[in-house]
Amino acid sequence: MPKTIVVTLLATALAAGTPSAIAHTGEVDFPPTAMVSDTTGTIADRYIVMLKDTGTDRHGDMDDVLTAATERASGMGALVHHVYRHALHGYAASMTASTAAALALDPQVQSVQPDRVVRATDQSVPTGVNRVDADLSPTAAIDGVDTRVNTDVAVLDTGISTSHPDLNVNRSGGVNCWMPFLPPNDYHGHGTHVAGTIGALDNGTGVVGVAPGVRLWPVQVLSPLGMGSTSTVLCGIDYVTQHADQIKVANMSLGGSGADDGNCGKTSNDAMHQAICNSVAKGVTYTVAAGNSHADAKNTVPAAYDEVITVSALADFDGKPGGLAGPTCRDDQDDTLADFSNFGSDIDLIAPGVCIRSTYLNGGYTTLSGTSMAAPHAAGGAALYLATHPTASPQTVKAALQNAGSLDWAWPSQDGDAVKERLLKVSPF
């Protein structure tokens, strides 16, 4: 049985399990607190079943395999919640431990793993757009005139407030993996805040994002309480992969414990890793939060995965280098690694993540802190690059962001390793 993962939103933010939005039953996809293990984060009697790769791309054949597999599980008393057809092949279901054990012996099954909890834990927010030089980007063209960046970005989070006047939300797209028959509207605030940092409109009011006016796809994988599960996150990744011809960037400001097996989950049967690897292969660039435990990110997923862009948080209170500003919304040292941020060799970039002001619920704005706030700066940077390099691969996008980065921030300060990550700079894009 693979190692379980507990996932947390990182306003302080990480990314955890991965869900898929293909076939849902309509049942609420988050259990009562009493059903959740306090020690492992696993959800009682909930499992993710991954099928073996059949070696064929014929959609009809795989549909037949999935139909037969889910019917077999239903016949054994399982209640199927999600079916995954794009990022991986499999399903999520409620079942007894004995049924799970029996299914694990099926020759068509690659692995059966427990479903796990994901949750949001917000902190506090502001000057990131200035610090990453988005105002100097010719593609962002920030001048108070509503000219929109031509890229599509998915936000895997608590949803997005679709009525916020400062956001260009794709109302005909998106999915609610937590409550499948409701629209992916945000009643928590975290996802809307992340969305604003990525692409709030350059319309002369409110705030402006790194890539103003990008088309934002709300992919709700967490409940209004900021809670979710591996199956719902997998649902989100599956949906993004299904729409990879349109969605080019996906931000995951959420996460949990785990490690990179170095083989896209094929060695450890890590469903989330396999799903992300397959999605990246379809051309989707993933930006993810490093985590807020002030520890090595190698023990956090998806931050530990090599296929994503993992972003740590910079404490910056004035949008300028030099470390001269005093703290604002929370105590920290200006121009240093945030005192909560994860670090380590898996970090690909550092971006502002302390006292970030962005869009919020009811058409408003607020300030939050965390690696959840750092990752969307990189998502905006990726969107800017792809607007002028639409065929660039995720690997090329990652290299471009790193090559354009700056070392102009104080170090080692609170950093726990011997590597100084490059600070996101988007002015060349």
TrEMBL record:
Residue ranges occupied by any Peptidase S8/S53 domain in the UniProt entry: 152-404
All copies of domain Inhibitor I9, residue ranges: 46-120
UniProt KW keywords: Hydrolase, Protease, Serine protease, Signal
Classification via PROSITE patterns: SUBTILASE, SUBTILASE_ASP, SUBTILASE_HIS, SUBTILASE_SER
InterPro entries recorded: Peptidase_S8/S53_dom, Peptidase_S8/S53_dom_sf, Peptidase_S8_Asp-AS, Peptidase_S8_His-AS, Peptidase_S8_Ser-AS, Peptidase_S8_subtilisin-like, Peptidase_S8_subtilisin-rel, S8pro/Inhibitor_I9
Active site residues of this protein: 157, 190, 372
Signal peptide: 1-23
SUPFAM superfamilies: Protease propeptides/inhibitors (SSF54897), Subtilisin-like (SSF52743)
Similarity remark: Belongs to the peptidase S8 family.
Protein name: S8 family serine peptidase
Organism listed in the record: Streptomyces chengmaiensis
